[in-house]
Amino acid sequence: MSSDSQASEGEVYSLNMGPQHPSMHGVLRLLLDLRGEEVIRAKPVIGYSHRAHEKMAENRNTLQFLPNTSRVDYLSGMIYNLGYCQAIEKLLGIDVPERAIYIRVIVNELNRIASHLLWFGTFLLDLGGITPFLYSFDDREEILDILDQVTGSRLTYCYGRFGGVTWDVDETFLTRATAFLARIRERLHMYKQLVTDNVILRERCTGVGVVSEALAKSYGVTGPSLRASGVAYDVRKAEPYGGYDRFDFEVPVLHEGDTMARFHIRIREIEESCKIIEQAIEAIPEGEILPKKMPKRFKLPEGEYYFAVESARGHFGMYIVGDGSDIPVKLKLRTPSFSNLSAMPETLAGTMLADTIAIVGSIDVVMPEIDR
Amino acid sequence: MSDGLQALADLTSASEEMDYGKTGLHQRHTASLENVLKVGKTFLDEGYILEMLTCQDLREKEEVMRLCYTFNSLDAVDRHLVHVDIAGGLASEQFEAPTMSNLTGGANWQEREVFEMYGVTFTGHNELERLLLPEDADFFPLRKDFGRIEDADE
Amino acid sequence: MGYFGNVFGGFGSLLSGMSVTLRKFSQTVIRRKAVTMQYPKELPELAPAYRSAIKLIRFEESNSHDCVACKACERICPSYCIKLSGGKVEGIKKKRVAEFEMDFALCSLCGLCLDVCPTDTLEYSKVYEEAGYNRDWRVDLLAEFRDYEEEFVAKQRVIEEKAAAEKKAKAEAAKKAKEAKKKAEADEKADNDSKEELS
Amino acid sequence: MPQTLTQLLDGSVLAMPIAAGLIMGMLTVNVLMLVWAERKVSAWIQMRMGPTEVGPFGLLQTLADMLKLISKQLITPSNVDKPLYHLAPLLAFAPVVAAVALFPFSESTILVQNDYGLLFVFAFGGIAVIAIFMAGWGSNNKYALLGAIRSVAQNISYEVPLILSALSVVLVVNAMGPTLSSGDGVVAINGLDLSHIVMTQDQQGIWFVVLQPIAAIIYFISALAETNRAPFDIPEAESELVAGFHTEYSGMRFSLFFFAEYTNMLIVSMLAVVLFFGGWDGPVLPGPAWFFLKSYAVIFVMMWVRWTFPRLRFDQLMTFCWKVLIPLSILNLLATAFVIAVL
Lengths: 372, 154, 199, 343
Fold this sequence. Notes:
The complex is a heterotetramer of chains A (about 375), B (about 150), C (about 200) and D (about 350).
Chain B: H1 8-11, E1 12-17, H2 20-23, E2 27-31, H3 36-45, E3 48-58, E4 64-73, E5 80-87, E6 95-98, H4 106-118, E7 120-123
Parallel strand pairs in B: 2-5, 6-7
Antiparallel strand pairs in B: 1-2, 3-4, 4-5
Chain C: H1 2-31, E1 54-56, H2 72-76, E2 82-88, E3 95-103, H3 112-116, E4 122-124, E5 138-140, H4 146-198
Antiparallel strand pairs in C: 1-4, 2-3, 3-5
Chain D: H1 5-8, H2 15-45, H3 61-71, H4 82-100, H5 117-138, H6 142-175, E1 179-182, E2 185-188, H7 194-204, H8 208-211, H9 213-226, H10 238-241, H11 251-276, H12 287-306, H13 314-342
Antiparallel strand pairs in D: 1-2
């Protein structure tokens, strides 16, 4: 910036927020130009947790990339892990046993709820409400315990295998999951009383950080943030994968596009996920969890493939180029938070400093997913 | 293909239907560097979004750096993959393409990522800086000749 | 109405929020019910699928592991954390692993090594406290097996000899049976022939 | 029986040191207890255990924390404005200690008897703003400066409804009659004298929270804002400003701010007890016991509020003050004056 423009803008100063800052989720760094408390420009600086997942994918075979996937987004690792499995299965034409399909749906949706609960907690923490954060962590812990039962890990699951899953679920798992659904519904009522109805929260969120439909589409914003802007796009409905077309659920849509709309969308998505889990538990068949016959090496046929799943944050796409060997020529991970965050500079300009925190919190970014 | 996309026929050198059930892509187009912005505008005007932009390093085999754009419609899934080849062999370092960031905001960061990972310069991009890598990085890690991650014991 | 409605409505929502926290407060105080676990004093119950560093399974019949040093796990490991060597052991036919070192600091607990193991001799251990004071987490997986290796080899030799003997005996028996069968058939044929003759 | 401690030690050179020592000792214990209580209350609200390890029920946890803070190296960042930076914690600390001395813990336990105690308490409270701004300015840190700016705007704004709501109580006290019977006999009533406010409630047999409920609520809300407590903890909003005005402070200097913050809590709740809850008035137990019981009850509500609500945004905070609290408190004051005039 030249000294002329600085002088004409008056008392503009820049504030470096992050990468180590209490409310910058992970290691996001925001360079803010402020006039008083008003944000004039916001520039996200990312890349602090870049781990070269795409380069790693080009250097190892398809199976070896499996543990990487859940580490792309550690908050909905299951969705990424199973999403990658589903991509390779579709590519190679591997049939997944019925039971494995249902197990995958259950754990996926549990993971989605866990991710939304964590978002709920940290968002409230950004707004200064510490107690809801601990309540939601309590609920999330229950999910992690349930998933721990079958996956053996808490966050970075490596539960999926090409063709199925590693560990069969038992009766305890299903009863615990059912009990959890009852519990979370009760808790959602409590959250409504404690948080959603709260006048302070409503004041803080309503009309703040409006992402218009046009802006969202231009930046490729997906997931709950897009649905809060009035576009009913959910990969689970648009391109059903992994048996999601068998379940009856709605895609909640709101048109305000503000922080409050994003808040409501996620709460309602938790309810929809509960519905899916309920149906899946009802209908889960007995049987194998891995196909009997599997290829020894997962050789990718020559050509280009694109496969998308709906992660907790939006459209997670995998663009895979194969050349006949089992090592991909190119594996591009199109992560939702990356696009969602890229829309932030336009959204943040003109808001208050405190709103910046609320808005960045409300789009639910996970930095490792952006940096990959 | 919707009516608005008919204009693509003139702008692309090759278009082929793809097996969506298997590849997840509906059509594949090949466009020249001059036409890429027009192709992009055609899609965006039809309400498509730029879903993904990436690049493939094919300098060794085909002597090109290939930009891969996917456009998708949020209303009814219709995914188009657009290839744009930038000529240049292993020896060439300079690759240039026009920026799409003035048409759609989503291109902004994705082009920056392609720039730092593959060294493709997008002309007209107003903040073509490194995004994920350190600002002073002078290498392009996703190029095939950057090397591979060695095994631990090698 | 609007102004005072907003003020008092907002005030009411605050009170309802406070009733929630008061309820939780009294639940914790009266019922002494905390949701947290007092970690070093109590340990969580580990799930059956719990994953910690891999280890070799001790099979009951042989009182030892069954690793044949095929190196499949070493090849598949995405983190390159397994190093093993081994091969032929004097006296027995079965291959045995001689060195099996695993760097748990690198391990990502993906479980691919368990999947590829042809003899299914790997499993996750149930170590819960995985923190340490240095970065050296190289574990010799064979440490608890070394003392039994001679015993195993001796046993295995017996088993193999027995198996060989059995095989030999079986082969002989089979041979005998075959001969006997042949003979029987021949006899039968002869019988039939004679019967036919008789008839 | 001597009326006050000052009278007891009248003329003695030891009077000042002993009084100061008493206050300091009391406040230190109070802060230690309050920090412990805050941690326990928050833990119980969040269904946790809170400190349990150090001492019985973790009571000594804060003592250990304090020892740690005291033993830490005093770090002075290189680019700070040194005089301001060094002076700010002391300036935050001193007035709160002075203000505590003014309170009547019972009819006979008053460290410093002052006819204008109420005004003095507010005056000492005003100094805290200067200290906070010195800390923010002197730290030469943008977060600290933002916190300091917010703090000044907030504290000055919220002093208005705070004093207005206290004034309506003063009006009521003065209206209760020209005289008051006290230990010295009958004295002229003085609504600005803290002990007179309590004695009026005592003798009329009614707490002013009943007569002035709106003033009580406004006072409580403004008091939260005055002490920078959530949901008004905007000057030190950790999710926005890291730690606000004390971002650059550590060790003992930080603990002085901490000390001042918690003592401020005690002061505003003691004042609330004096103004609205009948001070030392209560059966069976001695006066000071009632006084502190009531104060801690008010403090509990402050903690309860803190651990329930999210934080307001800065402009909303100001809007709330100027558009809701101040009009309401002025209306309340006018209504009080009107009723008194009519009666």
